[in-house]
Amino acid sequence: MASHNLLVFSDVHLGSDLVQHARPGAPALGPAGKRRDRELVALMDWYRLRPRAGKPWRLVIAGDFIDFVGMSVSATEPGLCTLPNEEERQHGLGSAVDHTIAKLERVAEQHGLVFEALARFIAEGNAVVIVRGNHDVDFHWPEVQSAFKDVIGRYDAAAAQQIEFSDWFYYEKDVIFVEHGHQYDDFCSYENVLHPVHPSDPKRTLRSLSDVLLRYVVRPTHGMSETGHDDASAIDYLRFGARLGAFGMLRLGGRFVRAIGVLVRMWREHMSDATQWVRAEHERKMGMLAEAKALSLINLRALAKLQRPPMTRSLLRLLAGVMVDRVAVSAAALCLLVWVLFARWTPTLGIVLSTVGPGLVLAAVLWRRTRVAIDASQSLREQSARVARLFPAAFVVMGHTHLPELRPSDDGASTYVNLGAWSEEDTPDGSAPALPASRTHLVVEHVDGKAVAALLSWDAEKGPQRFISS
Question: With 0-12 CB in 10 A as exposed, 13-18 as middle and 19+ as buried, what is 362?
Answer without folding.
Answer: exposed
